[in-house]
Amino acid sequence: xxxxxxxxxxxxxxxxxxxxxxxxxxxxxxxxxxxxxxxxxxxxxxxxxxxxxxxxxxxxxxxxxxxxxxxxxxxxxxxxxxxxxxxxxxxxxxxxxxxxxxxxxxxxxxxxxxxxxxxxxxxxxxxxxxxxxxxxxxxxxxxxxxxxxxxxxxxxxxxxxxxxxxxxxxxxxxxxxxxxxxxxxxxxxxxxxxxxxxxxxxxxxxxxxxxxxxxxxxxxxxxxxxxxxxxxxxxxxxxxxxxxxxxxxxxxxxxxxxxxxxxxxxxxxxxxxxxxxxxxxxxxxxxxxxxxxxxxxxxxxxxxxxxxxxxxxxxxxxxxxxxxxxxxxxxxxxxxxxxxxxxxxxxxxxxxxxxxxxxxxxxxxxxxxxxxxxx
Length: 375
Hints:
Number of strands: 19
Distance between the termini: 16 Å
Number of helices: 13
CATH class of the largest domain: Alpha Beta
CATH architecture of the largest domain: Alpha-Beta Complex
Number of domains: 2
Strand content: 25-35%
Low-confidence stretches: none
Mean pLDDT: 95
CATH topology of the largest domain: Quinone Oxidoreductase, Chain A, domain 1
CATH superfamily of the largest domain: Medium-chain alcohol dehydrogenases, catalytic domain
Shape: globular
């Protein structure tokens, strides 16, 4: 079948992307689903900083590729052997396809499953197949999803069935931003009820984590970011306090406010500066949860003796330590039951022709979670 898709031919093109155009809108060919695969009509796809990193070239990928990894849509067709999905199911896509039988999957940690690492690196689906092509030449898949398109063929372990009560454009951001941000608070950090917490970095993931934190009733929720507009939004969404990260007294102000520092801090920006802030604002005995993904060669230093003497904990949180098939429906139910306005996380709905300019806005901090409207 023919469809519209955004193809990236080269990484690392200069900004503004609106001029260099790393994403080219093409009419590509998509084969039907093979065994264990599902054809999905994409309704909406979120623009994530991980996609921005791919454009910038800090996350090398096999090119050319149809990118995008955060989306929701409707099942059109299922391949041989697929038993858990049927046509007309509403689904959210997840960027880690799991095998269901390794030690990680068996211990309820499918987010750490390594079965799709090789396929992700090589630009294929989990099966090793490529279903995308242009003018007879194969195109690569991105994170096993390739969501910036009208349709996608994915492994059945890359999708989660959801209720039809949630609009699909809202559902689109649950596969990355929400499951990662909320999961970090609910799963990785554990019980935050009655504690003081801080979220450093208020992109789509950070704002999702903030909304998740609001539902868990911590004593104090402190929002920290470089952008005053995002701090204002954080206050409106439930942050009790907000501080500008560029303020040289930011750490001192947080410690004064909390009587020595927060109980739990979340780094959700993917930068070493944010990580340092998140560590520095913690009190003795505190936990720092690292959620954002900095460049793969980046390293973070801390005092080894203080780590012991202060009983500090530093934890990583990948995809919100989530079991997607369990947590995505749970988080949807949680938000809908508490009437959380998910649309507050979405700053714009865009079309294919606006994709490059939308990544400029994302890089400039002028947007929250933009969603590509594919239907």
